[in-house]
Amino acid sequence: MTDVEVGPHVTVLTGAANGKYPDGNSVLIEGSDGTVLIDPSLTVHDRGGIREVDRVLISHAHEDHIAGLSAVRATHIHAHHDDVHGVRSLDGLLSIYGLAPREAAEFRVELATTFHIGDVPNATGFDDDDVFDLGDVTVRVLHLPGHTRGHSAFVIEPDGVAFVGDVDLSSFGPYYGDHWSDLEDFVASIATVRELDARHYVTFHHKGVVSGRDEFVRQLDAFGSIIGQRDERLVAMLDRPRTFAELVHDGLIYRPGTRPPSFGDAVERRSIELHLARLRREGVVVAHADGRFEAA
Length: 296
Ligand SMILES: [Zn+2]
Description:
Distance between the termini: 52 Å
Number of domains: 2
Largest sheet: 7 strands, mixed
CATH superfamily of the largest domain: Ribonuclease Z/Hydroxyacylglutathione hydrolase-like
Bound molecules: zinc ion
Structural class: alpha/beta
Low-confidence stretches: none
């Protein structure tokens, strides 16, 4: 693990393969009056954990963001109120994905083994704009829902560092494929985080540290534009009447041959459902009486 200091109080604990899933980049904040660890990753677990911090802050309840939790001794563990049930119990976490029963049973095993996840009943919720005061440094919550309902960024001052979680600037694009995801919320959150002026932006995956607002906005706009490309692709698929099942079969999100066997179908279903709702609202797509969809 490579530690990267991005401010006097802030260290990025770079995950294996630069934080590529299933790994990720955790952040350690050390103030005069306390310590915070954000999103303990699989790498944090694999290197034997972190002996002791006052608080763990979790950007959202997804397996990769809590994979190191069991290897960290923390007095308090927090996630946003809308996601904290996904940290408190495995059942709560599974309810966030919205998988079919058989897929959920398989994934439950993977959560416990690959990601070392168990119940954390003492985890408590935080609210939008809550501030954690560590003496000479503060951590402020910036709620950015869409990826999950409780997905949150953390703004660390005076260091000028923003941890933006899974607004990850990847070429895959925004992920809103869970029961707990929402496309319109994600679009609004991209607009919110675009206004954020920081010296360094830290993503949980892949990009890691992006320095300067201009570069962040450039990468954020490219990331956000993938939503519009998916809209266009779906409209092109609907040049003739198609059923929902046919659209899911062909797929909108994953490139041919890359759909994960366990949860890929569920992700396609949820994402296509969200894009269809948006395109129908805009009058770009219509639903026929027989249930098939077509471009207007
Ligand atoms: Zn996530």
